[in-house]
Hints:
Strand order of the largest sheet: 1-3-2
Mean pLDDT: 89
Shape: globular
CATH superfamily of the domain at 36-62 and 73-140: Peptidyl-tRNA hydrolase
Order of helices and strands: HEEHEHHH
Number of helices: 5
Helix content: 40-55%
Number of strands: 3
Oligomer: single chain
Largest sheet: 3 strands, mixed
Radius of gyration: 15 Å
CATH architecture of the domain at 36-62 and 73-140: 3-Layer(aba) Sandwich
Low-confidence stretches: none
Strand content: 5-15%
Distance between the termini: 33 Å
Structural class: mainly alpha
Amino acid sequence: MLFGKKIILAKPRTYMNESGRAVLSLLTANRVHPQQMLAVFDDADLPFGRLRLRTSGGSGGHNGIKSIIDSAGEGFNRLRIGIGRSGESQRGLTGHVLSRFSNDEEAGLPAVIENAACAIETFVQRGMRAAMDAFNRKQDQ
């Protein structure tokens, strides 16, 4: 329970490209509508540590999100956590996503995780609009 609401945290054990299968199974088993879900995932198109919340949309080339869209539709909430693209040119995008964080990024991870946790708490307690207002704008200023 969080703020008096039942919360289900899940990390699919499928391959990322098959996340939709696990998500759909979880939603169905718990009678949860996709609009009640918040998918949290990395995004190389955002600078490291930047958060971006959205209520729907496309996959943006993220295969895990594409799988969820294919299984549950586009109408679910998303919290994108930026991992940037530093070093991608040497390793390619897949190599970058699967590689370790740089020393500077590693040092910044606790703040990124805390900020993401606060965004999730705001989503649960006050809704997606409040979370978007607080966290999308906060980092752009």
